[in-house]
Amino acid sequence: MFTYDHQKRVSYGETDQMGYLYYGNYPLLYEIGRTESIRSLGLRYRDMEVNDRVMMPVLHMEARYLAPIKYDDNLTIRTIIKELPTKMIKFDHEIYNEELELCHRAYVKLFFVDMDTNKRVTTPIALQQALKSYYE
């Protein structure tokens, strides 16, 4: 199983009038988690698009709000890939506040699409190789 933690502080512009992280900004945290977890493997999301001509559209997203996240909280965005991806990849996300209290849980399923044909394809080889050792 692959797990990656990324730190991010909540800015004023990300909050609502009450000082809480605006609910519409949570998917941006998932995106940060996905992008940075892939980067931690020595890959870049952008390289998959440019070099491999593969994009990853979202198929399904589910979220659970457990406790409020507030302005200036230093968050830990934990991104987990529980299974080696094939034609689809599922990212589980856990977001913790500074006190390491679990505030939010979500998962996002994406699939791989060839940008030239718009057809589903399998996981790009570089991503599959980078993840393989976590599942042996």
What number of structural domains do the residues give? Answer: 1
CATH topology: Thiol Ester Dehydrase, Chain A
Structural class: alpha+beta
What portion of residues is helical?
10-25%
β-strand percent reads: 35-45%
What is the multimeric organization of the chains shown? Answer: single chain
CATH architecture: Roll
- General form: elongated
Distance between the termini: 9 Å
Integer-rounded radius of gyration: 16 Å
What's the β-strand tally? 7
Low-confidence parts: none
Task: Fill in the keyword field for this structure.
single chain, 136 residues, alpha+beta, Thiol Ester Dehydrase, Chain A, 21% helix
Q: Could you outline the blueprint of secondary structure elements for this entry?
A:
Elements: E1 2-9, H1 26-40, H2 45-50, E2 54-55, E3 58-65, E4 74-81, E5 88-96, E6 102-114, E7 120-121, H3 125-132
Antiparallel strand pairs: 1-4, 2-6, 3-6, 4-5, 5-6, 6-7
Structure overview:
By secondary structure, the chain is of the alpha+beta class. It has one domain (2-135): Hotdog Thioesterase (Thiol Ester Dehydrase, Chain A, Roll). 21% of the residues lie in helices and 37% in strands. The protein has three helices and seven strands. It has helices at 26-40, 45-50, 125-132, and strands spanning 2-9, 54-55, 58-65, 74-81, 88-96, 102-114, 120-121. Strands 1, 2, 3, 4, 5, 6 and 7 form a seven-stranded antiparallel beta sheet that branches. Strand 4 and strand 5 form a beta hairpin. The relative contact order is 0.24. The mean pLDDT is 96.
